[in-house]
Description:
This protein has about 300 residues and is α/β, with parallel strands linked by helices.
Amino acid sequence: MFRTLPPLATIRVFEAAARHGNFTRAAAELGMTQASVSYQIKILEERVGSPLFVRRPRDVALTGVGEGLARASGEALDRLATAFAEAKGQTAGVLSLSVFQTFASVWLVERIGSFQVEHPGLAVRLDTSDAVVDLAHADVDIAIRAGQGDWAGLTCHRLVPGRFTPMMSPTLAARLDPEAGPAGLLHLPLVSPDYRWWALWFAAAGVHLPAGTGGIGSDLGTQDLEARVALAGQGVAMLNPIFFAAELAAGRLVQPFDLVCADSHDYWLCYRTARRTAPKIQAFRDWILREIAAGPKT
C-alpha cells in the first residue's frame, strides 16, 4: 500500500516542537538550529495546508489541527522506536518499574520472585519513589500509580481499590472500650491523625472528630510505615485491608469495626498505549493481573 507521508525527519521535528512547545528546545534535542526547525515546520504547514502552531514571543502553541497531528505523530514514533529497539534486542532483558512505596513494600516484593521464575530472562529494575514519573520521557516501562486511571496516552488496569479502615495490634485493641463504638478510637493514639482518611472514616461512622484530635502528630506518609507503628502496638493506623490481609488473618493486626470506606484513588498498572504490544509489558501485565485476581477482594 502506497502511503503519502512527509519525510520522517520532518515528522520528528514537528513532534519535538509540539512536545516542547518551543522551537529552540526542539532544535537542541535534535541537534539542529532553530532556523532549521522553523523551516521544517513551515514545509509541513504548507503540505497540510493549515497552520500547526500559533507563534508567540517566547514559545509556540499547537492549533486544533496541530494537536491532532501531534498526538498521532507521537504515538507513531513511539511505536517505531519500540519496534526497532525490540528488533535489536535492547528491551528484552530489563523490565523497569516505577512503583509507589506502599504497593512495593506490602504487596509486590513478596510476589515478584514468582514473576522472575516465570520469566528468567527478564531482570526487574524497581524504583519505589512516590514521584509520578512521566512515562513519555522516563526510562520506565510500567508504573503503578494511585488515582482515577484517566491519564492521557496510557493504558491503565485497576489493581487495588482505594479502601481504608482502622487497624491496630491486639494489645492496643484490648484497651478499646466496647461500649463506646467507633468514638472509642479517639481515646487511643492515632497514627497520622491529620490525614484525610481519618476524617472521612469518622464521618461515615457518625463520629464528630474534634479539632486537635490527639495522636502521633507526624505524617508518616506511607501505609507500610504506619502499619509498622500499629504492629508495634504504638497506635491505630488507617490502612487498606487488602494490603494487610495476611496480618489480619494471622491476628497480628485487628480490624475492630466492619466499616470500610472507599477512596477515589485506586492503584493502577499503567504503561504507554503505544507500547502495549511490547512482550515484556504484556508478560508483567498478565502476571500481575493474575496475581491480583487470586488475592483478597475486601
